[in-house]
Design brief:
Order of helices and strands: HHHEEHHHEEEEHHHEHHEEEH
CATH topology of the largest domain: Beta-Lactamase
CATH superfamily of the largest domain: GAF domain
Largest sheet: 5 strands, antiparallel
Shape: elongated
Strand content: 15-25%
Distance between the termini: 63 Å
Strand order of the largest sheet: 7-3-10-9-8
CATH class of the largest domain: Alpha Beta
Oligomer: single chain
Structural class: alpha+beta
């Protein structure tokens, strides 16, 4: 939608004023800010309302942006914004190089997002359909415990500890470790999970019955549901929108069930910022909120998604470049981390 310069400026000011105050914006305020008569402002605002970009509230003669108004603003005004060099440098210092595992890196980025934006942030792990086994490692812990470490091809690491208590003799641990890697490396998590029972009966039982409990635990790692980690939810409680009990109830339902957050990561464009404003999603609980996500990928494999949950009147000029820059930096760290994991895995294989 093309707007002339005056309408463009009025819409921009209305959105930014409403974002800052949560109060409808009237013609008198705009007249003072823009140096244009109130009558002219009223005519222009009426035209923007006809275009579906602004709307009246039932309690005021002022206007507030519609979902379509926010969408125009995001696409036409904010999409080209970037952070200042000093802001980028500050984020670089806060993103640790020592976070280690993929999950830790993503959670650290999620926590940073919430601190910098004062909204809620979240991360979503990839579905098991998108993962294949890179390596399985069995590590003896003390006299009666065994750790199972599962490394996926996307860099994700899953681990659990089981009670061994002599079920698997020490001399068999390495044998089982090598056998599991020989049979399962390169297989899709979902394929292993769906076929584990007949696989145990037809092949692995021929080696040693004691491996069955180990495989049950391994299958539990494979079957782990998509994980959603939410950070900074308390930031949202200070917002005027959440003073309304119905809006608060919907927000709490979103972060407690996490269903909508899981579903949103299945949409959009991989590797790019995806912005869902209010009614643009099919979830009624999200109609008063904006969700912004950034999908992380390594070698065309999805490794997780980071996102922001805020009100529709969020500070888009700050939030969008912030999540874009953090997402880009996280992507670089994940790729670097993946390279290290591959190198370590190759070393372990050579040693064997």
């Amino acid at each position: 939608m093309e707007l002339d310069e005056r309408k463009r400026k009025i819409l921009e000011v209305v959105i930014e004023e409403y974002s800052a105050t949560a109060e409808p914006v009237g013609s008198l305020k705009l007249s003072k800010d823009l140096g244009v008569s109130s009558a002219t402002i009223r005519n222009e605002m009426a035209a923007l309302e006809k275009l579906g970009l602004l709307e009246h509230t039932h309690t005021s003669s002022g206007r507030i942006p519609t979902t379509e108004g926010y969408r125009w603003y995001v696409d036409q005004i904010v999409s080209k914004n970037t952070l200042l060099p000093k802001e980028k440098a500050s984020i670089d210092k806060m993103l640790s190089d020592e976070a280690g595992k993929l999950e830790n890196l993503i959670k650290e980025a999620t926590s940073l997002l919430s601190k910098l934006t004062n909204y809620a942030s979240y991360s979503v792990s990839p579905e098991i359909d998108d993962c294949t086994v890179e390596e399985i490692k069995l590590v003896k812990l003390g006299t009666n415990k065994l750790m199972i470490i599962l490394l996926a091809d996307n860099g994700m690491v899953k681990e659990t500890v089981i009670n061994n208590e002599g079920q698997i003799p020490d001399q068999n641990i390495e044998i089982f470790n090598n056998y599991l890697n020989y049979k399962l490396r390169g297989m899709n998590f979902r394929d292993i999970y769906d076929n584990i029972a007949p696989y145990i009966e037809s092949e692995l039982n021929n080696i040693n019955d004691n491996i069955v409990p180990l495989l049950v635990e391994l299958n539990g790692l494979l079957a782990s549901d998509t994980e959603v980690h939410v950070d900074g939810a308390s930031n949202m409680l200070a917002l005027p929108e959440l003073k309304k009990s119905e809006t608060l109830k919907k927000f709490l339902n979103v972060i407690e069930t996490k269903d909508a957050l899981k579903e949103l990561v299945k949409t959009g464009y991989d590797g790019n910022i995806n912005i869902y404003i209010g009614q643009e999603t099919s979830f009624d609980d999200l109609k008063d909120f904006t969700i912004i996500t950034y999908k992380q990928k390594i070698n065309d494999k999805e490794v997780g998604t980071i996102g922001i949950i805020g009100p529709k009147r969020m500070n888009y000029k700050k939030v969008i470049p912030t999540i874009k820059y953090i997402g880009d930096m996280l992507q670089k760290k994940l790729e670097k981390n993946e390279g290290g994991n591959k190198k370590n895995a190759n070393k372990r294989r050579e040693q064997k």
